[in-house]
Amino acid sequence: MASPKQxxxxxxxxxxxAAEFERREHAFSTIRTxxxxxxxxxxxxxxFERLDVLTGKYGDEGDKLVFKILRRGEHEATGEADLAxxxxxxxxxxxxxxxxxxxxxxxxxxxxxxxxxxxxxxxxGRFREFVQCDLDIVGSSSPLSDAEVVLALHEALEALxxxxxxxxxxxxxxxxxxxxxxxxPDELGPGALITLDKLDKLSPExxxxxxxxxxxxxxxxxxxxxxxxxxxxxVARIRGRLKASEGGQAGLDEVDRLLELTExxxxxxxxGFAPNLVRGLDYYTGIIFExxxxxxxxxxxxxxxxxxxxxxxxxxxxxxxxxxxxxxxxLPLIAQADEAAYSQxxxxxxxxxxxxxxxSFRLAAEIRRTGVRTGVYLGSxxxxxxxxxxxxxxxxxxxxxxxxxxxxxGTVTLRxxxxxxxxxxxxxxxxxxxxxxxxxxx
Length: 442
Prior knowledge:
This protein has 442 residues and is α+β, with helices and mostly antiparallel strands. It contains 17 helices and 16 strands.
């Protein structure tokens, strides 16, 4: 006897039946509309990349989560990997920009909505396969580009109906300035930032311990950094610490400029400076941000500036910035589809007898040509009640009844599935009438 387990999708992946699939597609369509309105162009890249393209771009922690693909054919026995499933959509963009730079407009504004893969431990809200919704600007070092990315993401979140979200903004220059202020050695800085990035997951004491025992910082350095970043007055503390740091001051200027450029378009309560925001990915170089929402652990969107990444891949070095919507965390926050029954079709056409079947199929084809989603009963029962039950399960708004009496009279009966009201209309006018009713009811 087969075990139910064998029919489950692989751990960390999911099947999407029609209702959930449609809900997701509706969200993706909303996001595409907003991104396109800002002038971003679509880009599609392969699901897997060469391993050397991906590794070394995400930091030690990120590199461990890259899904590797073993060599094939005569090299299979080596157990070595040469390919990997894409970890995100940013590095593939950088590779494509390096490959097609001369063919792309400058600045190049692109969006991508596609699955990515992480060799992570699955858990609540954490998947090994999930979709990212990214937009990026390549070729502009202007702070206007950072603002454009944030504004487009803000508008997309509003269009999706996400409640009470907030942008947290920082700069890598602020963080490196803080390391400089505490005299953290340059070689220990990147590792320290990776640990500081865990402040939203671990207790301050645990982070201090890891900075000392795992990253080599002195207890005084570790304690000072964590205290400054977690204090109630952290903004004032960080601004004070950075007065003597030229790089840190430049980072504060980046943050302040972004807040100035988005003022008016984004309410003040929806965006602000967050000194404890780190974002541990190695490729970030300037502005970084995350979006949080009540009741959701972690962020629902994130991004930042990553000048230099395209040059690291061997292409002409270009400044770049971008952001990503965490759609898997966003969808549970949206109530729009939860309250309405899933509708597979708008019109259900019954088959009341073999004699009417051909004409019923012809009628269904005419209705579909008007743009209305139409289904024909394909079961073996000619019972009226069973066919009405089928029409209701399909979520049909109207049902077409065409039996012997209607055929003789040259009419069809249109049944409103919500009110139960029935009207007779001429057969040759029924498609147009249904189209009119569907349009007026939407």
